[in-house]
Amino acid sequence: MRQIKFRAWSIDNEVMYQPGDEHGTTTDLDCVRYFSEGQNVMLLQFTGLADQNGAEIYEGDVVDVCGHRIAKLEGVGFVYWCEFSAAFRVKSGAARLPHPMDPKILTVIGNIHQQPELLEQPS
């Protein structure tokens, strides 16, 4: 059984709300409350997985992929919810990591809301 947890990205304030932050968010349910009260926030769900360093992986996280023998995927991608397969996946350019996501090959390096530049390809 996996934990159901959330964090919230404030679209207006460009702030990430998560339990224990300096904004007074005490639980992940506070993030849901911000959404239900009509604040302009985007809820980001916990995938139930931790990366190879033990960091929790959330929807919208930017991850460094250490290599996947099937997808031949390496580099940087982001975690998203795939409606079609009803699973969290990683997207990197045109490549998509097959389900299930293997957290042993992922390292969280940021998120697409606070560090979108992490996804930019060098020219």
List keywords for this structure.
4-stranded antiparallel sheet; mainly beta; 5-stranded antiparallel sheet; 123 residues
Distance between the termini: 43 Å
* Secondary-structure-derived class: mainly beta
Helical segment count: 1
What is the beta-strand fraction?
Answer: 35-45%
Number of strands: 9
- Give the fraction of residues assigned to helices: under 10%
Taking all Cα atoms into account, the compactness measure Rg is 15 Å
- Assembly of the depicted chains: single chain
* Overall geometry: globular
Order of helices and strands: EEHEEEEEEE
**Spatial strand sequence of the major β-sheet:** 8-7-6-5-9
Give the number of domains. 1
Spans where pLDDT lies below 50 across 5 or more residues: none
Q: What characterizes the major β-sheet?
A: 5 strands, antiparallel
Q: How would you state the average pLDDT, rounded?
A: 84
Describe this structure in words.
The chain has 123 residues and is mainly beta. The chain has one domain (6-118). Helix content is 7%, strand content 39%. The chain has one helix at 28-36; strands at 6-10, 15-17, 41-50, 56-58, 61-65, 75-82, 87-92, 95-96, 106-111. Strands 8-7-6-5-9 form a five-stranded antiparallel beta sheet, with no helix packed on it. The chain has a four-stranded antiparallel beta sheet with strand order 2-1-3-4, covered by helices on one side. β1 (6-10) and β2 (15-17) form a beta hairpin.
